[in-house]
Design a protein that fits this description.
Blueprint lengths: L8 E7 L4 H10 L5 E7 L10 H7 L8 E4 L7 H8 L3 E3 L7 H9 L10 E6 L7 H14 L3 E5 L9 H10 L3 E5 L3 H10 L3 E5 L13 E4 L7 H12 L6 E2 L10 H14 L6 E3 L1 H5 L5 H15 L3 E5 L8 H17 L24 H9 L7 E5 L2 E6 L2 E5 L2 H4 L9 H20 L21 H21 L1
């Protein structure tokens, strides 16, 4: 007998009149598609305006469907709707053009919770600031993903409160390392309860015997791999934990050779726990740090290194801890799956998007023709910014060109709102970023939208709606 063909799920997609044609086109072209579908318009123009109560009033005959998919911007309560209709409801992506990726992601969801790299975040000016300041910075580093707070000591700078600083950090629940060129500082740190010491060579290994501390080992000359090897062999023989650091150099000061040195270290000592200090590169390279850190964490992942040390001194480095925390999880997942770090997460792209412009100019023009109300819609395509309502479609690349065409001079709040949105749309168009009206631009792991942002826009839109209603009455 021939094998029975497995039944495919039946999905019901709810939408508005404006998006019906595009939704049908995207679903029809979706390959491979593991489900059958029906698209249903519930008598509303803009799908995002559907509410849970509206759906309960309008939706009928859902028997035989396995799931019902709402537009991504529809805020109905999924659990309530699922209970009311006896069919699971789910929310799709905010842009229907993202449906292929959305359903692909459903099949390939990958956890990014795990990592195997410790982050040491250094407070480089600890001797010059108060203990309260150190604690505040440490708390911020911990929120961003740091595992160990490194107390940096400065040359020729007294640090009388070093022991108190370490003990305050430990009391606050932090793991602590001390970084100094002076044996006296390292001894003070070890005796005060530090967990790690930077950086001990074969000549100063005796300091680690003064307390139960984990040393970060370097060569007598930091670039001398033979000297580092002798320190590794001597300390490994004790059976105590350590890290080995081959020292990453800045560009044009030995950067390439230092990468090779880390490779050679791993080949000589396959089981050695490796630390890479990456602040030399990020601080001394005026480039966006997210890409630099992503590449470095890729090297760390290939090496099987287990710790990195970083700093946030320069203004352009102010989010590196957060960037590294995200990159280490992406690299861990990619390495486990034996694949390049792609299609796992969007958080490592801040300036650009993989698909910045989901709609073309012709599709936007088609949608604009269906609009019958005075509310402005703003979309961005490869050719520029598109603004439309019932009075027509305007296209340009500069808000100063577009704003005079909107005729909102007599409504200051509305003018302010449109000015804000046009400015965001222009930034998105210039950088190749995804723009969604009424939402902050997404900047990946380097920035999270303020918690009150959605509430702000909801209140603003409510105010504008009331004003428009009053104008219609008059």
């Amino acid at each position: 007998m021939p094998k029975a063909v497995p039944r495919r799920d039946r999905l019901l997609f709810l939408t508005g009149k404006l998006a019906e044609k595009s939704l049908l086109r995207v679903l029809s072209e979706l390959e491979p598609r593991s489900f059958d579908f029906e698209v249903r318009v519930l008598g509303i123009t803009v799908a995002a305006l559907m509410t849970g109560d509206f759906i309960k009033r309008r939706l009928r005959d859902v028997e035989g469907f396995d799931r019902i998919v709402l537009p991504g911007r529809c805020r109905g309560d999924l659990a309530d709707l699922s209970a009311a209709f006896g069919v699971p409801f789910e929310r799709g992506p905010e842009e229907l053009k993202d449906l292929p990726r959305h359903f692909g992601a459903r099949r390939q969801q990958r956890s990014l919770e795990r990592s195997d790299v410790l982050i040491f975040a250094e407070i480089v000016d600890a001797p010059q600031v108060s203990i309260d300041t150190v604690l505040a910075r440490a708390a911020a580093y911990r929120r961003d993903g740091a595992d160990v707070i490194d107390v940096g000591c400065l040359p020729d700078t007294p640090f009388p409160h070093l022991a108190d600083t370490i003990q305050a950090l430990k009391a606050d629940g932090h793991r602590v390392s001390v970084d100094s060129l002076l044996d006296a500082d390292l001894l003070t740190g070890a005796r005060a309860g530090a967990d790690y010491l930077f950086s001990l060579s074969e000549d100063t290994l005796w300091i680690a015997d003064e307390a139960p501390v984990t040393p970060i080992l370097i060569g007598r000359d930091p670039r001398d791999l033979d000297s580092l090897g002798r320190a590794i062999e001597r300390y490994a023989a004790s059976g105590r934990p350590y890290f080995a650091d081959a020292i990453l150099d800045p560009i044009h000061h030995g950067f390439t050779e230092s990468i090779v040195r880390y490779r050679d270290l791993r080949q000589r000592y396959p089981a050695a726990p490796i630390m890479m200090g990456i602040g030399n590169l990020t601080e001394l390279t005026h480039a966006d740090t997210l890409g630099v850190n992503t590449l470095l964490l890729g090297i760390v992942s290939e090496l099987g290194a287990s710790a990195v040390l970083t700093t946030e001194v320069s203004g352009h480095c102010r989010t590196v801890v957060r960037e590294i925390a995200h990159a280490r999880r992406v690299m861990f997942a990619a390495r486990e799956d034996n694949m390049p770090p792609r299609h796992l997460d969007e958080g490592l792209m801040a300036l650009h998007e993989r698909k910045p412009f989901p709609y073309g100019a012709a599709e936007i023009a088609e949608m604009a023709q269906a609009i019958r109300d005075p509310n402005f819609r703003i979309q961005v395509a490869a050719d520029g910014i598109h603004v439309y309502n019932r009075d027509g479609l305007r296209t340009g690349v500069d808000p100063y060109e577009l704003f005079p065409l909107l005729n909102v001079d007599d409504d200051a709040p509305h003018a302010f709102y449109l000015g804000l949105e046009l400015a965001r749309a222009q930034i998105a168009w210039q950088l190749g970023k995804r723009y969604n009206q009424d939402e902050e631009l997404a900047w990946g792991c380097v920035h999270e939208a303020p918690a009150g942002d959605k509430q702000h826009f909801a209140a603003e839109k409510s105010t504008l709606k009331a004003r428009k209603a009053r104008r219609k009455k008059t």
